[in-house]
Write a structure and sequence with these properties.
- The complex is a heterodimer.
- Chain A is of the alpha+beta class.
- Chain A folds into four domains: 200 residues, no CATH class; 199 residues, no CATH class; 207 residues, no CATH class; 122 residues, no CATH class.
- Helices cover 53% and strands 20% of the residues of chain A.
- In chain A, strands 3-4-9-6-8-7 form a six-stranded mixed barrel.
- In chain A, strand 13 and strand 14 form a beta hairpin.
- The longest helix of chain A has 55 residues.
- The two termini of chain A are 29 Å apart.
- Chain B is of the alpha/beta class.
- Chain B has a domain of 166 residues: P-loop containing nucleotide triphosphate hydrolases (Rossmann fold), CATH 3.40.50.
- Helices cover 28% and strands 29% of the residues of chain B.
- In chain B, a hairpin with a 2-residue loop joins strand 4 and strand 5.
- The radius of gyration of chain B is 17 Å and the shape is globular.
- Chain B has a six-stranded mixed sheet with strand order 6-7-8-3-9-10, with helices on both faces. In chain B, strands 2-1-4-5 form a four-stranded antiparallel sheet, covered by helices on one side.
- Classes of the chains: A alpha+beta, B alpha/beta.
- Chains A and B meet through helix 13, helix 19 and helix 22 of A and helix 2 and helix 3 of B.
- Bound molecules: adenosine-5'-diphosphate and magnesium ion.
């Protein structure tokens, strides 16, 4: 007996195949996005935790000017500190073979003998440098690969002003540099910036740091009171130019990784729920219709003696089959997405191993949630079949009650064409269905915006950062602070057409309980090469008589223009000063504070000095400028604006592009499924009417206009609504924790082209679903439809 | 105004067959039918269930195409007409009435009629059409608010609103009781008489033949017999 019913399940699936596939696709998207993102997260988290544990990644970090090694016992004595690691870490300029540009590297000390107790390196190739061989270095893997180096290659560098030839003896990774960016940068540039590890003795000698250290890392006991440790470290390092201790979560690489995971998590939860919600709604419509048309079948089954439970179970199996179909497709999709994303991440986050790992429970979790959503969507319909009395089911359903629509009753619409009138009355009879269809399509529209807008925002940010704000060709930073006299030397470098000095000093701002260490930059108020802006793209010149703060810094400190702000200079005299907050500017990277150059000098009680300059350069002489810079010991680094721009642009084009197309296609699947179902249900419910109209002499075009009418109305409402929702969601997203950080912010920008692509995509999916139904209209047998009684 | 019944054919079938291949076997619904509907006449098609009446009517009205044979409307050969041409034929010249009314449930009586008058350039005022079938009072009722007989009369009003040359009715009283059936037949009779619309009515009820100018009997896909009726009686006096 049950076997026959099972055959009916298959028949039903086959008969409804279009709708079944559409709904299964939506479920597959939900399950696939969840599995893809959650497995990517899982893989990253697993790789991270094993890497952090194996390489003994420190819990607390601090940078300082120079402190004697005999501080170690005092640091060791801080309650909660288990291991103290002192290091020498300095930036160096590299003379990269075959490259015009000057590269930079962070040179990190490893103990003279053995392995680092914290922040250990993972040797990928070669061997550790030998004690006493100060020229031997390990280089970070990404940098090594980007240059196609080989072991024993030479690496010329300028260390503390003098030329040194390092030799690559090994390739390494470290949890400290999983994400490697040059200071102040957001994206890795593996050709220009790398990490070098060398034995300590040689480094100490090169930097005049014998018996001393300038970098501290601590490992804490599990129950340690982090804030107390940070405060204690700051107290001890204070006299030695301490720049402030910070916990692991603020460590650049750890921060970026954690932030990436936060972003992933947000999407991994919300997007799948959106898809499953839409699937539930579609199942609801399809099953309501199915059960309405099968009342007599149901009654017959019951009259034959099937139990309510068996009949309910029959329809539940049908739901189950769709969920299963969608989930299995979702598993495959999720596995593919997850492994693709994980390997994409492997290019930016360097782990010794980043295998694609699936949390074994997550496929079942996804299946379970999809099942719940489907059950929620179809519960009412299935309950109705169970509750149907055999005799009642044999009677046709009560005739449909219609009335004039509200618009007509109110007399607002006098002359609605008849075809449209039927469409409007159908909608008014089942308003929830129309509302949910609109909701589904507008969500899909919103999704296209939400997924694509960040590329716009980043593009806009680039345009502001590199097009408006940074107007120099190159920027150079000096090894040490110099007097203004050096400016003429800089102006004499080859190709330099114009030079503007700046001076940046590490300071600690203090406002009430908030303390923030940032660098305060003195700029020439008449300078043209760094232009500051507010969000309305109004240029804001550096104000005289106070500080110009970036908005995020002002927020963190809780200060407003007119407030007085205390700060301490973290170098030299370590003196405390105070200045008025003159104005706020909007920046997208880091926290910044500016002052007129001369004001900064007089505040600090110094003659005007500089430690860097922005230059305009004759492009044809760029190569000779680089060559000269490499040979000039006082210049620590040089950065070319266009290179940074190209780098980010390349990343956008390469990765964001694919991601956007993938998510756009998900959104379109959602829109297609909703619209296709709308139209199929209309076709099913109104086929008799449409056939009648054909009999009366209506042309196929006229009849299909009515068929498409409901979809058209849904699109008409849903697309503008969805674009608006996309706008709202995106603006909420840029303010969410993963996107509004001290390290970077996204401006909220959506270009018209993004709206247009979203709207056109949704329209296209409407067109495709319309075409599918139109084909059916063609095969539609008038005679057959007229024979039946409804 | 008395109806002018002539013997000029308005619709003509010549050697029409219709067969439906059903897997292994072929069902022959029509097996070579020669038949004409004359200008202005009221014709009743009689025959048992399954004899091919509906098939015949559907081919006459351009809803279906014959397997072989010819269909002529006046002097137009529709035998090889495309589906687009058949649509235009129905749109301009044919009115249909079916057993189950086939009204649009979301439209009122008036709007159901307007549905046709909107696409018929020389159609009649929808109110007039409804008046003709005695429904002037029910213009704004939805089908669900009307009885079967009323619904069928709306269907007739809808069919005649375009002033068709031909009115084809497939068991128009099939779902109605005798009393209501008479009302409906009366309405059809009046249309035929007053507008001169050539009318064919399918029924399996021989008594109804009494209202017709001619009675055509069909059996097993063939015309069995054609009877002229010199003195048709009004439907009101027919009993069945
Ligand atoms: N679409 C179809 N497919 C197969 N057989 C059909 C189809 N339509 C009608 N028939 C068959 O053709 C014959 C005539 O049908 P029909 O014209 O509807 O008869 P009537 O209207 O006189 O009852 C019947 O045997 C019927 O089963
Ligand atoms: Mg029939």
């Amino acid at each position: 007996m049950l076997r026959t019913l099972d055959i009916k399940v298959w028949r039903e699936l086959l008969r409804l195949r279009g709708q079944v596939v559409a709904i299964a696709m939506v479920i597959a998207c939900g399950v696939g996005v969840y599995l893809g993102l959650s497995s990517t997260m899982h893989s990253l988290q697993r790789a991270r935790s094993s890497n952090y544990a194996e390489q003994r990644f420190a819990h607390v970090f601090a940078e300082l000017e120079r402190a004697p090694l005999h501080l170690i016992p005092r640091l060791q004595a801080i309650e909660g500190v288990q291991v103290v690691q002192t290091r020498i870490v300095r930036g160096v300029t590299l003379e990269l073979p075959g490259m015009v540009e000057a590269g930079s590297a962070r040179l990190v000390s490893i103990p003279e003998r053995g392995r680092p107790e914290l922040n250990d390196v993972k040797l990928r190739l070669g061997r550790m440098p030998q004690p006493g061989h100060s020229e031997e270095v390990l280089v970070s893997e990404a940098f090594f690969e980007a240059h196609g180096f080989r072991l024993d290659d030479e690496l010329p560098a300028i260390v503390n002003g003098s030329r040194v030839a390092f030799r690559i003896v090994g390739v390494a990774l470290s949890p400290e540099f999983t994400y490697t960016v040059a200071p102040g940068q957001l994206f890795p540039d593996d050709r220009l910036h790398g990490i070098l590890w060398a034995r300590r003795k040689g480094l100490a000698a090169a930097f005049d740091l014998e018996g001393a250290f300038n970098n501290l890392a601590l490992r804490l006991a599990p129950q340690a009171h982090e804030a107390a440790v940070l405060a204690a470290v700051d107290r001890i390092l204070e006299p030695y130019g301490g720049r402030g201790a910070y916990p692991r979560r603020d460590q650049v690489s750890a921060f970026f990784l954690e932030n990436e995971l936060t972003q992933l998590q947000g999407f991994a939860v919300t997007i799948p729920l959106l898809f499953l919600g839409v699937a539930a709604f579609l199942l609801h419509i399809v099953f309501q219709r199915l059960i309405a048309t099968q009342r007599s079948d149901i009654a017959a089954l019951k009259a034959f003696g099937y139990h309510d439970r068996e009949v309910g179970w029959h329809y539940a199996k049908l739901v189950g089959a769709i969920v299963w179909l969608g989930s299995v497709a979702g598993w495959l999709l999720g596995g593919y997405l997850g492994s693709a994303m994980t390997s994409l991440y492997a290019d930016y986050y360097r782990f010794p191993e980043l295998p694609f790992q699936l949390d074994p429970l997550s496929p079942f979790l996804a299946l379970g949630v999809a099942g719940l959503a489907a059950g929620w969507g179809t519960a009412r319909a299935i309950r109705q079949t169970v509750g149907l009395a055999p005799a009642e089911a044999m009677r046709p359903p009560a005739p449909l009650r219609y009335r004039r629509t509200l618009l007509e009753r109110l007399g607002w619409v006098q002359k609605v064409p008849i075809g449209l009138r039927t469409v409007l009355r159908e909608i008014e009879r089942k308003p929830w269905r129309a509302v949910l269809s609109v909701a589904g399509v507008s969500m899909a529209t919103a999704l296209t915006i939400l997924m694509a807008f960040s590329a716009d925002s980043i593009r806009y940010m680039l345009q502001v950062q590199f097009g408006l704000s940074q107007r120099e060709d190159v920027q150079i930073s000096l090894l040490q602070t110099r007097s203004q006299a050096v400016l003429s030397e800089i102006r004499n470098l080859p190709g330099v057409q114009h030079a503007e000095p700046y001076r940046s000093v590490p300071v600690e701002f203090r406002a009430g309980a908030s303390v923030k260490r940032v660098s305060l930059t003195g700029l020439d108020p008449a300078g043209e090469l760094l232009a500051l802006y507010n969000t309305s793209e109004e240029r804001i010149p550096i104000a005289r008589g106070g500080l110009t703060l970036s908005r995020k810094l002002a927020e963190v400190l809780g200060v407003r223009p007119g407030d007085s702000l205390a700060f301490r200079w973290l170098e030299g005299a370590r003196s405390t000063h105070s200045a008025t907050v003159a104005q706020i500017v909007d920046t997208y990277v880091g926290l910044s504070a500016y002052m007129p150059l001369d004001e900064l000098a007089s505040t600090l009680g110094e003659p005007p000095t500089l430690n860097g300059a922005r230059l305009l350069v004759d492009p044809s002489e760029l190569a000779s400028l680089y060559a000269e810079v490499k040979a000039t010991p006082m210049i620590a680094g040089i950065a070319e604006r266009d290179r940074s721009l190209r780098l980010v642009q390349g990343m956008l084009d390469e990765n964001m592009g694919t991601m956007i197309w993938i998510s756009l296609s998900f959104a379109l699947v959602m829109a297609f499924a909703v619209l296709y179902n709308t139209i199929r249900i209309t076709l099913a419910e109104r086929s008799r009417e449409l056939a009648t109209m054909r009999v009366l002499g209506y042309r196929r075009r006229e009849v299909s206009a009515i068929l498409m009418g409901e979809m058209g109305l849904v699109l008409l409402v849903a697309i503008p609504l969805g674009l608006w929702m996309g706008h709202v969601f995106s603006s909420a997203l840029v303010r969410s924790p993963g996107y509004d950080t001290e390290q970077f912010r996204l401006p909220f920008v959506i270009y018209p082209s993004t709206y247009a692509i979203g709207a056109l995509g949704i329209l296209a999916s409407g067109l495709v679903s319309g075409l599918g139904a139109w084909r059916r209209l063609d095969r539609f047998d008038m005679v057959e439809v007229l024979k039946s009684r409804d | 105004m008395p109806a002018v019944t002539t013997s000029t054919p308005i619709l003509r079938l010549q050697q029409v067959t219709k067969s439906y291949p059903m897997g292994e076997v072929v069902v022959h619904a029509l097996r070579g039918v020669d038949f004409a509907l004359h200008q202005g006449e009221c014709l009743v098609l009689l025959g048992p269930s399954g004899s091919g009446k509906s098939t015949l009517l559907n081919i006459l009205g351009g809803l279906d195409v014959p397997t072989s044979g010819e269909l002529w409307f006046q002097d137009h050969d529709l035998s090889a007409a495309s589906s687009r041409e058949l649509t235009e034929f129905r749109r301009q010249h044919v009115g249909f009435v079916f057993q189950f009314y086939n009204l649009i449930p979301s439209l009122t009586a008036l709007e159901n009629v307007q549905l046709v008058s909107e696409i018929a350039p020389q159609g009649m005022d929808p109110r007039e059409a409804l008046e003709r079938v005695g429904l002037a009072e029910r213009l704004h009722h939805f089908p669900a608010q009307m009885s079967g007989g009323e619904q069928q009369r709306v269907a007739i009003a809808r069919a005649i609103a375009k002033r068709p040359e031909v009115l084809l009715c497939d068991e128009p009283t099939g779902a109605l009781d005798v009393q209501t059936g008479r009302l409906v037949l009366n309405a059809l009779n009046e249309v035929n008489r007053d507008l001169g619309t050539s009318t064919a009515i399918i029924t399996h009820n021989a008594a109804i033949g009494a209202m017709a100018d001619r009675v055509v009997s069909i059996a097993d896909g063939r015309i069995a017999k054609i009877e002229e009726n010199a003195s048709p009686v009004p439907p009101g006096s027919i009993d069945w």
